[in-house]
Amino acid sequence: MELNVYGLKCDNPVCDYQDNSIKLEQYEDYINYPCPKCSAPLLTQADYDTTMVIIQAEKSAEELGLSDNNLNHGEKFKLRVELDGSGVPKFDMKQVE
């Protein structure tokens, strides 16, 4: 498995602010940080906590030896996770050729 976590986008549905240069290591600094465009929080505590749970789950799977090849017979998938401030993730999985 390969985990790529980066960038933050404003959760306000009428705001289009997004910054893909923000690294995972910086996320804690952005909890309740106001959006530069609309002042809504860029990252809620609930979304941060959910992100950390997803990362820990991936690490645990690796430690247990659950690799991509063991789980899906070598097929590759891209899983996009979106959070909206509520801490409840939305998943979108697509097969990668």
Which key features would you list for this structure?
alpha+beta, two-stranded antiparallel ribbon, two-stranded antiparallel sheet, about 25% strand, globular
Tell me the Rg in angstroms. Answer: 15 Å
Which parts are unreliable, with pLDDT below 50 for 5 consecutive residues or more?
none
Strand content: 15-25%
Head-to-tail CA distance between termini = 16 Å
Mean pLDDT: 83
Shape: globular
Number of helices: 2
SSE string, helices as H and strands as E: EEHHEE
| Structural class by SSE content | alpha+beta
| Helical coverage, percent range | 10-25%
Order of strands in the sheet with most strands: 1-2
Report the strand count: 4
Number of domains: 1
Largest sheet: 2 strands, antiparallel
